[in-house]
């Protein structure tokens, strides 16, 4: 088992099998898991495009160089086939990956999953989008005890 396998298993378990409390909210971008050995981080977004989960890969420390016409371009983009390999790894785990975005020559890429996230996680994202119920005028930007406690109640992977 590689570290990427551990990251994918952890992230998928969070998206699909973790029951969230009904008094917690989750910011819609979800969680990130880091793989420093590969200079990558992976994102697990519960409700991205089409309100379905999106798994993303990003270069952590980006480097840039100038191309032949003097434009700044990524010097360490995603590897050829890296985004497709990520989609294949997700499919191998039984999750239909029905779309990809970006990828090489960029430093970020995303894979859209067909199956919706766990209903309790989707509900927690809806609670985030609804904003603070004590201070509706503050929406998601509230700093009060109620709002921060609601965020803190989300169940996260031990490694996140
Ligand atoms: Zn508040």
Provide structural commentary.
The protein has 160 residues and is an alpha+beta fold. The chain has one domain. 28% of the residues lie in helices and 22% in strands. The protein contains 4 helices and 7 strands. It has helices at residues 3-16, 82-92, 119-130, 145-152, and strands at residues 31-35, 40-45, 54-59, 64-66, 72-74, 97-102, 108-113. The strands form 2 sheets. The chain has a 5-stranded antiparallel sheet, with helices on one face. A two-stranded antiparallel ribbon has the order 4-5. The model has no long low-confidence stretch (mean pLDDT 94).
Question: What percent of the residues sit in helical stretches (DSSP H or I)?
Answer: 25-40%
Averaged pLDDT, please? 94
Instruction: Work out the radius of gyration.
Output: 17 Å
Q: Specify the structural class.
A: alpha+beta
Q: How are the strands of the largest sheet arranged?
A: 1-2-3-7-6
Q: Profile the largest sheet.
A: 5 strands, antiparallel
Total domain modules: 1
What ligands can be seen in this structure?
Answer: zinc ion
Instruction: Please report the distance between the alpha carbons of the first and last residues.
Output: 19 Å
Low-confidence parts: none
Count of separate DSSP helical elements: 4
Order of helices and strands: HEEEEEHEEHH
Quantity of strands, as a count: 7
Approximately how much beta-strand content do the residues carry?
15-25%
Dominant shape? globular
